[in-house]
Design a protein that fits this description.
Structural class: mainly alpha
Largest sheet: none
């Protein structure tokens, strides 16, 4: 922007995050953060600020390219959840899985593996797997906070590593623009692939889920949440607002529900979304590969089409089977759609505060904190730290990529820094913010998919995310001195394992011992 706001540009996200932590009223805190941004933009005129705020909210809701499509996806998925619940398919599936998984560890591992398999879109991952696995994790008294953490840690961290995902085309386009501006003739997609081994944050974040599951090294607020679930049977803190799936507690499930009532719509959802991703990517027009089609896809629209297909087939299937009438299916869909209202409010305010930060040039101010005199060996770690702070403050991983990539590439050229490490530092830092910022849309949707209070999800996940980020810092420091990613990656993992053991020793609980002593592993009970 022509006008600089300096330190004032970072006040709105700081106000929103601080108030959310203190008051636990996340929507009000977000609105106050947005209003603070409106005051700054309008010269502290309260009337003009209020008008500016609501204009930004309307613009966020009316964005036809992305936001409005995400809203449709969330609403349709909410309707599908209601439909699956009414059919009895969710209960039948949970019973079927519970008969084959006889431990808390197995239920968590199944969720983790499913999250890794669904690598092509983070929103799809959080909402769909949360819907499918929530009855199963509830069955084994796994806290909703833990489920939300598993969903979140296999969303953005997986998408940023996969060569085929809804993220890749966007990232590659930013790299291409940066290379063109810097006069670099390297192939952008190849540069992205070279950066993958250096993305220490994403690799360790994904691995941490599996390590915590199989070693039981819980610590901090997450350990307390798991202890509550095991000892009391409460998988969520029912004293908090928006903490559970209360919208469905009075819904009567069909008595003759079958596993196929859940599996058929979900398979259609997966296969339909994949088909439409290839379709909207132009594969059937000829001349491109499936990989190129995925990189060119319209992910949000594809999810709309796939979800709608699953809903229509689900209604028809239940009517043909005589388990749920069409009228009851529609009523269940309406209940499911209503259950997404809180998530949609959070998303709207998160998008709006992102727009405020863009208008204030928050990212530009933060980027200016890196001087051109910094030695090239420290450029990767400085880029990572700045990307982390930017993404956490704004809740926008893609926005952070857009801000930082045009800065990171010329900085790497000017200082002769490790280009692959610098690109990975931007991507890893952006994923960190997407992973744990209370303003991030994926964090919000992971809370929604797990039916977990949003701030409970954030406060239990932050210690884990910060542990991973702290270890990744070491990797980026080493990558500034080495041209090979193997040693930095191994050292990062080694430090992480030691840190996890120490954190568990001083701040953890032996959850599995509690399970054994209280007979909490209730694999023979009914749901």
């Amino acid at each position: 922007m022509e006008q600089g706001f300096g330190f004032l540009s970072i006040l709105p996200p700081i106000i929103a995050i601080t108030l959310a932590i203190i008051t636990k009223e996340v929507l009000l805190s977000l609105f106050l953060g947005v209003f603070a941004g409106g005051l700054i933009l309008t010269g502290f005129n309260p009337v003009s600020a209020m008008i500016e705020v609501f204009e930004m909210i309307c613009n966020s809701l009316g964005d036809p390219e992305w936001n409005v499509r995400v809203i449709l996806v969330v609403v349709l998925l909410g309707g599908l959840v209601g439909l699956l619940t009414r059919s009895g398919g969710s209960v039948a599936f949970a019973e079927w899985v519970a008969s084959r998984i006889n431990s808390r560890k197995g239920a968590q591992a199944a969720t983790w593996i499913m999250g890794i398999i669904v690598f092509f879109d983070d929103y799809f991952n959080s909402l769909t797997i949360g819907t499918v696995m929530r009855p199963v994790t509830d069955r084994f008294k796994i806290s909703r906070e833990k489920l939300a953490y598993i969903l979140d840690s296999t969303a953005a961290p997986v998408c940023i590593l996969a060569p085929i995902s809804s993220w890749v085309a966007y990232v590659v386009s930013l790299i291409a623009a940066g290379f063109a501006a810097a006069g670099i003739t390297d192939q952008p997609f190849g540069a992205f692939l070279k950066s993958v081994p250096y993305n220490f944050y994403a690799w360790v974040a994904i691995a941490m889920v599996g390590i915590v599951i199989f070693t039981k090294l819980e610590f901090g607020p997450m350990a307390h949440a798991e202890k509550r679930a095991v000892l009391t049977g409460k998988t969520y803190d029912d004293s908090q607002l928006g903490a559970s799936d209360d919208d469905f507690k009075d819904m009567t499930s069909a008595e003759n529900g079958k596993v196929s009532d859940l599996v058929v719509p979900i398979i259609l959802l997966f296969s339909g979304a994949l088909f439409f991703m290839v379709y909207t990517g132009g594969y059937f027009d000829g001349g491109i590969t499936i990989g190129e089609a995925f990189n060119n896809t319209d992910a949000a629209s594809s999810l709309i089409y796939g979800t709608f297909l699953a809903v229509v087939v689900g209604i028809a299937l239940y009517r043909i089977r005589g388990s749920v009438s069409i009228t009851d299916s529609i009523q269940a869909m309406v209940v499911g759609m209503k259950s997404m209202f809180f998530a949609l409010c959070l998303l709207t305010m998160a998008w709006t505060i992102g727009a405020v930060c863009e208008s204030l040039d928050t990212g530009g101010f933060l980027a200016s904190l890196i001087g051109s005199t910094v030695p090239g060996t420290f450029i990767p770690v400085l880029i990572f730290l700045l990307a982390c702070f930017t993404a956490f403050s704004t809740g926008a991983s893609w926005g952070t990529f857009a801000i930082m990539m045009p800065i990171a590439i010329p900085l790497a050229v000017a200082t002769d820094a490790n280009m692959s490490a610098c690109i990975a530092a931007v991507l890893g830092g952006g994923v960190f913010g997407d992973h744990c910022s209370p303003l991030a849309d994926t964090t919000i949707l992971s809370s929604t998919g797990a039916a977990c209070n949003h701030l409970d999800h954030v406060k239990t996940q932050i210690p884990y995310a910060f542990t991973v980020a702290s270890c990744a810092i070491v990797g980026f420091i080493l990558s500034g001195f080495m041209s090979n990613p193997i040693v930095p990656l191994l050292v990062t993992f080694g430090i992480f394992v030691v840190t996890l053991i120490v954190a568990h020793k001083f701040f953890g609980d032996d959850i599995e011992s509690l399970v054994e002593s209280t007979n909490a592993d209730v694999s023979q009970e009914s749901i």
